[in-house]
Amino acid sequence: MIVTRYSQLVMPQDTNVIGTLFGGQMVSWMDIAAGKTAHRFLKGTAGEVAVTRAIDAMEFKEPVHVGNWVNFTAKIVETGHSSIVIKVDAYKESHEDDQILACTAMFTMVSVKKNKDGSYQKVNHQKSI
Questions:
Q1: In the chain, N or C: fewer CB atoms in 10 Å?
Q2: What is the tally of structural domains in the chain?
Q3: Which one, of 110, 114, 31, 22, lies nearest residue 74 by Cα?
Q4: What span, in angstroms and rounded, lies between the C-alpha atoms of 66 and 12?
Q5: Could you report the per-residue pLDDT of 92-109, keeping only the tens digit for each?
Q6: Spatial CB neighbours of 77, under 8 Å, sequence gap ≥ 6
Q7: Which of 75, 74, 62 has the alpha carbon at shortest distance from 103?
Q8: SS3 for 32?
Q9: What Rg value do the Cα atoms of the chain yield, rounded?
Q10: Closest C-alpha to 74, from 109, 23, 49, 43
Q11: Does the residue 42 lie in any domain?
Q12: 103 lies in a domain?
């Protein structure tokens, strides 16, 4: 099973008007974690890269503040012919607290390859978990 870990430090430019981590930034970081997981899964397949098809569910559970680390854990939970469903959990970590689940989401990625004309097409990755 492929489990990917990734971390980000929350800086002032990552916050919203109330001083907590901007939700869009969290989504972006979680998408990177899902993409990294798909990248590892697609090694040795016809799929050159995976793109985000859908964010199937996302729940913000706890606020994250400047100076907190956000530690992401991503794992594949399902595969189709070209799709890869990845669960991403984001844990906040502060000086005072160990890791606390801050956000969880399900991403569906699709494997694609580049055509000679520069366009991309969906491809069967022919792998399962």
A1: N
A2: 1
A3: 31
A4: 6
A5: 999 998 999 999 999 999
A6: 85, 86, 87, 106, 129
A7: 62
A8: helix
A9: 16
A10: 109
A11: yes
A12: yes
